[in-house]
Amino acid sequence: MMSLLFAIALGCVFITSQIVAKESELVSYSGFQTVIDNQNTNTNKNTSDTKAAYNLDWTSYHRLSNIYAFLTYLNTTYPRLVQLINIGSSYEKRPLYVIRISSSPSPGTRPAIWIDGGFHAREWISPAVATYIIQQLVEVPANAKLLSNVDWYIMPVVNPDGL
């Protein structure tokens, strides 16, 4: 558990240091789009391919479609561990997804931990942290003990409309 928290903290420091380093490149208005395009290469990938859905790197911004494709990939790849739950739709009719991660086949039989992110428009770090925690819980065998006594419910994007 401590290594997971430490990795999350290191990821935040790494991302912040990249942003500070990139500020020196923003010299003129005409260069903004080039910097954005170079920094945000993952937004141009085809999200219908499950390999592209898995290419979340936690150092770049990912659009809602990339995040939802990643959740769908995990749900399909790890059906005994992951359950993707549609809890409704947003004001602009976008789906709202919660992912349940549990080693128990029966929901509601154990204590639960809730994590959410993406409440505010232009809030980029909390969906990244939430998807990183999901990836660590599902795909890193050393973290399997974190699933032994609790169910995890994680909603990486609470406000998909960005309002």
Question: How does this model look, in words?
Answer:
InterPro entries: CARBOXYPEPT_ZN_1, Peptidase_M14. Belongs to the peptidase M14 family. Residues 1-21 form the signal peptide. Its cofactor is Zn(2+). It comes from Daphnia magna. The chain has 163 residues and is an alpha+beta fold. It has a single domain, classed as Aminopeptidase, CATH 3.40.630. Helices cover 39% and strands 15% of the residues. The chain has five helices and four strands. A four-stranded mixed β-sheet has the order 1-2-4-3, with helices on one face. It is globular and about 55 Å long. The model is unreliable at 9-21 and 43-53 (pLDDT under 50).
Helix content: 25-40%
Mean pLDDT: 79
What fraction of the residues are assigned to beta strands by DSSP? 15-25%
Q: Biggest sheet: strands, sense, closure?
A: 4 strands, mixed
Q: Note the run of SSEs as H and E.
A: HHHHEEEHE
Number of strands: 4
Q: Can you identify the CATH class?
A: Alpha Beta
Signal peptide: 1-21
Organism: Daphnia magna
Family: Belongs to the peptidase M14 family.
Domain Peptidase M14: 60-163
